[in-house]
Amino acid sequence: MTVVSATPDTDALSLTVVTELHAAPERVWQLWSDPRQLERWWGPPTWPATFTELDLRPGGRAAYAMTGPDGEKAPGWWEFITVDAPASLSFIDGFANEDGSPDPQMPDSRTSITIEPIADGSRMTMVSRFADAAQMRQLVEMGMVEGMTAALGQIDGILAEG
What whole-number distance in Å separates Cα of residue 143 and Cα of residue 145? Predict the structure, then answer.
């Protein structure tokens, strides 16, 4: 299994997910930089994502929609803060309205990704930080931990393809 741990920390208002992957950091980076690869794992298996925009640079944006088993759409957006290939990136992650604009009724989070070499591949650590306990609780109750764990669990299959 790809996911080593998923740890919500209500004191730090964060969710940390650690994965270990059998691939070099440069290959793991491609999972973020190639929208066709990204949409194969971003979102749980029953809610696959389709990316319509991916401008991976500081100030750039990503736009996507996850589609549920009944055809329900859950659009989202990212705004990239830092990009340091192949070692790290950070972005604001939010829900979107149908037109792609940020949904002010839903919380966003700040997500930092680090990719570091380990003996048999790479360790990718994702830390999502929330503005307050209510926002964190809302996202955790919506299934963020389970969804992220299921989404990341799809990466091994992608990497096995080469």
Answer: 6
